[in-house]
From TrEMBL:
Residues 14-25, 334-344, 370-379 have a biased composition (Low complexity). This is Oxysterol-binding protein. Its main location: membrane. GO terms for molecular function: cholesterol binding; sterol transfer activity. The lineage of its organism: Eukaryota, Metazoa, Chordata, Craniata, Vertebrata.
Amino acid sequence: TVGRKQSSRKKMTSSSPTHSDSSGSSKHDSNQDSWEIVEGLKGFPASMQEPVRQEGFLLKRRKWPMKGWHKRYFVLEKGILKYSKRGSDLKKGKLHGCIDVGLSVMSVKKKAMCIDLDTEDNIYHLKVKSPELFDEWVLKLRHHRVFRQNEIAMYPHERHLFHPHASSSPTLNDLMLPTSHQIIHLSLSLCLSDLEECESYLLELNLLLKSMEVLHRTYSAPAITALQVYVYTHTISNTQEAFHTTLKSAFSSLSAERDRLKHTIHMQAPQPAQVIGLKTTYSSVNSSRSLVHQVSNESKASIPESISEFFDAQEYLLSSSSSENEVSDDDSYISDVSDSVSMDTYSNEGGSERHNSVSSVVPLTRRRSTLPSPSPSSSGVSLWNILKNNIGKDLSKVAMPVQLNEPLNTLQRLCEEVEYSELLDTANQTHDPYQRMVYVATFAVSAYASSYHRAGSKPFNPVLGETYECDRADKGFRFIAEQVSHHPPVSACHCDSKNFTFWQDVRWKNKFWGKSMEIVPMGTTHVTLPTFGDHYEWNKVTSCIHNILSGQRWIEHYGEMAIKNVNNDACQCKVTFVKAKSWSSTVNEIEGVVTDRDGKVIHSIFGKWHEGVYQGDPPSATCIWRANPMPVEQEQYYGFTQFAVELNELDPSLKTLLPPTDTRLRPDQRLLEDGNIEGAEEQKQRIEQLQRERRKVLQDNNMTHQPRFFKKSKDDTWVSNNTYWEQRRDPGFSKMDFPVLW
């Protein structure tokens, strides 16, 4: 139920409440064509009378991607809003859904008679037909919301007793058995717990032996009676027995799992990074097994050395289980599928050789591996003060402090979408049209991978006429982008290679809804493959950043992506980015099918957009793509991937070839990358003011901006005019006139 129309073109202003009560709300101007955020509980919780039950029909916006409204019967009781088709269905216990009003951000628009409830998981859009009913429902919702919040404040342990989706059935993924990787992780955890117990036994045993040795060697020590010897011997015997029993139990389960998976791994070829990671774990188990044998057979004098070796093995187990070559612990299925992808194919390291590369014979330039300065803290920035007056508005027109930015531009973000261009290289060499579609669809999914760690900051907005180029001989492509429009903001890009051509123009609408910010892209992405004359088109899906104001921010993408070949209708593909479910721990999942012209499913794909895509059905599915490992300490450097780290790098030899409008020459972005926050903010304001002045000059002279490297096509989209690289070569940008952007 996410996605709204533009709510209001007028800026919403807030003022102090005209009266103070527990159910008060933010008061605004007499302008009723604006959203008002309803405030919640004020002061300390206290005993409160239960509000009167409210029920009746309301209009509810249909779930995305469907449009329009449908009529539903709502019942509001004790702060819980339930709804179904009819009142009789609710009496029978047939619910379509529930909303915890106390845990929701509530906003209302009086003129349109709209009520929005943002539960973070979903945004519920409600509408009332008459002003009288609207006032009645708003009043009751306020009372019930405060009542529910008071309950939560008084009894915090009952906060999560109500679940909006408790009536829904769990998905198949929730019922799936643990994967082999999860079993190994659990076995390791249990094993390490037992090893800690073994350590205490070993230390106790060592102390007892040393005590015996000291007593025997001390002439002044009293004679040891037979009873004392028996007690010491019996204690040592019990300690050794407990030690061996615990250690044997610790490794028996791990060894059984090792043998089972070892047989599975030897049946598969080739052996990818996932298998190598498992083999590393097996070798650790073997070394630990041999250590058990060593401890049980060596003399008591060598026990301290054995302890040291034992815990070296334990540390090795820990390090191998967290290897970057293994999949994550929360993966519900990927560890059970085979992998036909060589990690060399997708490596970004300078010395690696790319399979299927257009220019694999070209020596690679050594690129930087980290940014000059870590990301600054944005704790001193109050997002609420910035966003409270812009509920439901397009945030692309709202000025943000530079601390909220990352040292990359939206044009560079578009370049990140071709990081895994080798998938298109492979597609251009694949004769089967259905398999070709699989590679194209996987490429479309891979464009979202870099966003997983980037929910904490936003890219710089390009100014009108700003450009960016990325010439990657190691990847075999050349990429250019230009900001072709400012109102509305439109970014166009073009990437060519001997194996493919990629282009798109993208427009975004960013809207803030209280707890989350929604990013709705518009426009179409295009890819052509010259070998087969294919021309693929697809749409982008909706993105949403959660916990904007507090908590850990995280991003998700949801919706349906439809991919078609406009030159041949033999096959098409639909990829669904699954919206996270509050009752399930699985997130970021995608599911897709490739069908023929009759709708028959030929291939199926699944996976996670930030980790990998697999073809077929588990456990025999084949890995089509896996995201590159993240750089070390990436969380301190804006969550950038290695590819993103390289995008703003400015080599001295390249600087003389770039046009003065290239993003890498933009001073505010460069200063932020270097860690100079004050200088970046000052330059950012200056650059924005220059853009306003240029726009005024154009308006005063009845002129419109003409992009330099892109033109409008017949279908009203922006495409390359194919002049950038020619002008770069001759006469060279240094000999041409460009507007002063900064």
